Amino acid sequence: MQKTIPSVVALATALFTGFNTQAQGSVQFVHLANSSNISSHQTSLNHISLKAGGVMYPQVTHNHNPNWAQGVYVNQYQGVWKQNGNWTIYNQSQDTFADNSHYNVLIPGDDTESWKHISSAANSSNNYTLIDHPAINGDSSAVILITSAYDTHFNKGVFGVSYLTSQKKWAIINEGGIDSALALGSAFHVSVVKKQQLNLAAYVHTTTYPNTSTSITRLDHPQLNNNPNAIINITQNLNPFGGNDVYNNNNVGVYYTGTHWSIYHEDYTKHMPLGANFNVVFHDPTLGNADITIAHDLFKVYPNPTNQSKTVKVSFNKALTETAHFEIFNMNGSLVWQQVVKPQAQETQELKVHNLPKGVYSLKCHSQDQSTSKLLIIN
Question: What residues pair up with 324 in beta bridges, in sequence order?
């Protein structure tokens, strides 16, 4: 039983050329591990997107209860492995794989930069291995996913990413702390979400007193709230933007509460530390050309990208006969700007957004019977 959410572009490409993840947007699906695909300590993935061949770097996150189903805890160090041409998820401990457990799988496409990283004596020290890649060097705001990948040995540990400000580079770390060595030869799939793409939403979630209780921290994003079908991939982030270090040496997954998605500890007796950070990635249908439109496309926006010193204009597809509400959300899902436009005969309207900081935003316009969202980039 699998659920897939490709982008609109990915779906169109698949219809004509088959799934080629190197020439389309990333594909996400939910994998159910059961007796039909479990063998000892691993479960085989059989999704169509994995059949195209070529180089792939799957990312995996345990999903406790997709579509609000019955949940299963899996407190295991896990990774991915390609065996005899088939991709599998496996337990690093080689313990028997949990029956009826679910996993969110992301097959990276051209909306990411993805590769395989292997720790070595040249790139590793103490509990970290340095990632040296032009896609993320010097970028403390990069949103990175990692998944352990079998190469020559099992990676037993909880791993995340950390920005080393002194070197202006990212590293993969052992969340056990500075004294928890990261074994040489450890392999990881690394995927970085491109900042100007129209498929994946990516942001950093921070645990705070209002959103965190015991072993759980609640996510709050308009495309995730009240959406039990969302497919989310996460990676722990020690210090986004080069901030303070907060380790969290616990296996984590995602689960749906009935209204919100949350990140939780697989060992629910362990409390979630405040100030911990997680990179969160999911398909967002409101980005760019993948608009959510109830009726006809309501407006176009230009110039886009724009800069902080300019206003932007919207061009309506017809004269505005009812009040329209414009809202801008940042990539954390927070409302940062709004403006009400009264009915008018002219088909253009100026929006004063020059006070917003540089970044990528979702611009939403809704009236009584229409709603459209578009990507807005401010340089």
Answer: 341
Domain that holds residue 189: 2-283
Q: Give the integer Cα–Cα distance in Å for 364 and 268.
A: 38
What is d(CA 220, CA 64) in angstroms, rounded to the nearest whole number? 18
Among 231, 253, 283, identify where a domain stops.
Answer: 283
Which band of pLDDT confidence, cut at 50, 70 and 90, is reported for residue 152? confident
Note the pTM of the prediction, 2 decimals: 0.73
Task: State mean pLDDT over 200-216.
Answer: 92
- Average pLDDT of span 218-233: 92
Q: pLDDT for 316-352, tens place per residue?
A: 656 667 788 888 877 666 788 888 888 776 667 788 7
Name the domain count of the chain: 2
Could you say which of 231, 258, 283 is where a domain stops?
283
Contact status, residue 224 vs residue 203, Cβ threshold 8 Å: no
| Domain match, 91 and 239 both | yes
Would 365 be classed as within a structural domain?
A: yes
Rounded Cα distance between 335 and 220, Å, is 12
